[in-house]
Amino acid sequence: MGDIKLLDCTLRDGGYVNDWNFGHNNLVSIFERLVDANVDFIEVGFLDERRPFDMDRSIMPDTDCVEKIYGNLDKKNSVVVGMIDYGTCSLEHIKPCKDSYLDAIRVIFKKHLREDAMAFCAELKKLGYKVFAQLVSVTSYEDDEMMDLIRLANEVKPYAVSMVDTYGLMHQNNLKHYFDLLDEHLLPEIGMGYHAHNNFQMGYANCITMMSQKTERMLLVDGTIYGMGKSAGNAPIELIAMYMNENLGKNYHISQFLEAIDSNIMDFYTPATWGYNMFFYLAASNDCHPSYVSYLMEKKTLSVKSINEILGRLKGEKKLLYDQSYIEKLYKDYQMIEIDDSEHREQLKHVFAGRNILLLGPGTSITKEKNKVQKYISDKNPIIVSVNFIEETYPIDYIFLSNAKRYVQLATALSQNNVREKVIATSNVTKTSGTFDYVLKYSSLIDEEAEVIDNSFIMLLKAMEQLGIKEKARLVMNKNVNSLIRMKDFESMLEIPFYASISSDKMFNSSVNKGEPFVLRTSRTVAAKEFSSFIQRVIADKGE
Fold first, then answer.
1. What stretches of 434-525 show up as alpha helix (H) in DSSP?
2. What does the alpha-carbon distance between residue 335 and residue 392 come to, in Å, rounded to a whole number?
3. Which of 211, 238, 209, 240 has the alpha carbon at shortest distance from 226?
4. Share of residues in the chain with pLDDT > 90 (%)
5. Which class would CATH give 4-269?
6. Alpha carbon distance 162, 445 (integer Å)
7. Quick one: which of 279, 281, 290 has its CA closest to 320?
8. What angle do CA 298, 300, 306 make, to 5 degrees?
9. What is the DSSP annotation of 311-327?
10. What gap in Å lies between CA 11 and CA 510, rounded to an integer?
11. Average pLDDT in the 48-60 region?
């Protein structure tokens, strides 16, 4: 059995959590604790020529800056390592190893850059460094691509080749597959490493699997203190070290890791929690880049089931190379379920014909203005439609549902016998069982040119316009902030010009609090002039 060594990358991978801003005291303290813990390799940060030097950060433009931060510290028996994301730090920023505090450099690279990256590794090796070739997203490699990488590695002869499970996709079977492929074909003097991520909570288990493989070559296992790291975090080094002490006869000082957790790491954990969660599970279970999950979740219109189904449509190389235009198209295609809604449209035309209609959206104003709303209901006897929520204060007639996520939240209540409201749903919302009372075609209600193509309220207004209620509609944008909502999007979708727009003004609230009409308190502000014009227009148009 070959020797198995431990590498800590807290100061590098952990830096994704805090933009590498550990603070100088923490950088020093963490480093010294890792040295005293007898960690074999300590990765002290990124080398990135694009970043300015900062004494508080473990991302540095050149090897001189490594010296400035760590140069006075005793590294004892530990090997000090820096990392380069290939293409971000050129050779002119790297001193020869004999003149540098660094003993080794790890180079990470995507598979399509493997030939150029391995040539770069060869140049670093000439400078005297132990060089590690880090295979980003190793699970994306086909066997022929891996064999090509092995060919390149055997020519360069790096210190080690490491499997980097960037998106935490590995299970025991594919870990063993890549391990066997590398172990069989790599030159015996080349070590083999493994860097885990915890999307499937498999980081620690996979490290044990790695260390259990029979080989004569040197093995290297990565970990970080408390699992601190990018996305779902890394394998916790304190657990790996404990396992190695108990099963491999190592002598790592676990107390130093625990002290570092308590003294150095927890301050970062509280505001920026890392570790396993559903977000990273969805990315890993679909073998895809986490940014695809972010894009879909930020829509706030999709259930988890829908998100998972869209992710399942990702194909080929696109899965791990994020492409926003690609996921935008998949989102639109998923939502645009084509149906014939002509029958339901005719039925709704008859329902709404000649009636006043009151639309209610979720928010505090329907409670604050309860007396006014109830008076309007008493005077006008309108058909009341709530948008994506169940309102218990007023006698709702219809619920408009265009948001699949909201439907999931409302499904139980809607299935109960005491809910009398009928549901008007758009075709992108799928009922758990049975059918909705009315279904309207989603694609007919959106505006693909708008910043938010499927704003629920706008979709409902557009539906009303299509049902023949357009001539009764007047659009007024109250407390408008141009940076938040584009009026032209409303106008484009509804094909109704704005009747009036009243700008936001900080004096609105004080007017309400004092019980004084806004236009009497101030007549010179933009909002006051707009409000006065609005009132004058209403008076002028009363006969119309």
1. 456-464, 487-494, 507-514, 518-521
2. 30
3. 238
4. 55
5. alpha beta
6. 51
7. 290
8. 100
9. HTT--GGGGTS--HHHH
10. 50
11. 97
**At 483, is the pLDDT very low, low, confident or very high (cuts 50, 70, 90)?**
very low
pLDDT at residue 540, rounded to an integer: 75
Question: Which amino acid is present at 503?
Answer: S
Kindly report, residue by residue over 441-472, the tens digit of the pLDDT.
Answer: 888 888 766 666 778 888 888 888 888 875 55
CA 252 and chain centroid, separation: 36
Q: Which residue has the higher pLDDT, 514 or 42?
A: 42
Summarize the confidence of residues 344-362 as an average pLDDT: 88
What's the confidence (pLDDT) of residue 262?
Answer: 93
| Contact criterion met (CB below 8 Å) for 345 and 467 | yes
**How far, in Å, CA of 399 to CA of 542, rounded?**
31
Max CA separation in the chain (angstroms): 94
| Range of lowest pLDDT (150-164, 240-254, 281-295) | 281-295
Query: pLDDT, tens digit, for every residue of 174-224?
Result: 999 999 999 999 999 999 999 999 999 999 999 999 999 999 999 999 999
Task: Give the pair of three-digit tokens for residue 251.
Answer: 């002598």
Query: What is the DSSP secondary-structure string of 29-72?
Result: HHHHHHHHTT-SEEEEEEE-TTSPP-TTBSEESSHHHHHHHHTT
In the CATH hierarchy, which fold is given to the domain comprising 339-472?
Rossmann fold (3.40.50)
H helical segments located in 356-481: 365-368, 370-380, 404-415, 456-464
> Helix, strand, or coil here: 447?
coil
* Domain residue spans of the chain: 4-269, 278-335, 339-472, 474-544
Could you give the 3-state DSSP secondary structure of residue 77?
A: coil
Both ends of the chain: CA-CA distance in Å?
A: 92
More confident residue, 382 or 244: 244
Sequence-ordered list of residues with C-beta below 8 angstroms from that of 249, at least 6 positions apart, any chain = none
Q: Does 485 score more than 60 pLDDT?
A: no
Distance of CA 228 to the CA centre of its chain: 17
Lay out the sheet containing 422-426: strands in order across: 357-360, 383-387, 398-401, 422-426, 438-440
The C-alpha atoms of residue 53 and residue 296 are separated, in whole angstroms, by: 36
Helices (H), 224-303: 237-248, 254-260, 266-269, 278-285, 290-299
Q: For residue 453, which amino acid is it?
A: I
Under the banding of pLDDT at 50, 70 and 90, the label for residue 367 is confident
| 292 burial via Cβ count (<10 Å: 0-12, 13-18, 19+) | buried
pLDDT at 376 over 60: yes
User: How many CA atoms, within 13 angstroms, populate the side-chain half-sphere of residue 23?
Assistant: 8
Please provide the DSSP assignment of 182-228 as one string. HHHHS-TTSEEEEE---TTS-HHHHHHHHHTS--SS-EEEEEBGGG-
Mean pLDDT of the chain: 88
Task: Give, in order, the Cα–Cα distances in Å from 374 to each of 369, 398, 407, 521.
Answer: 9, 17, 27, 29
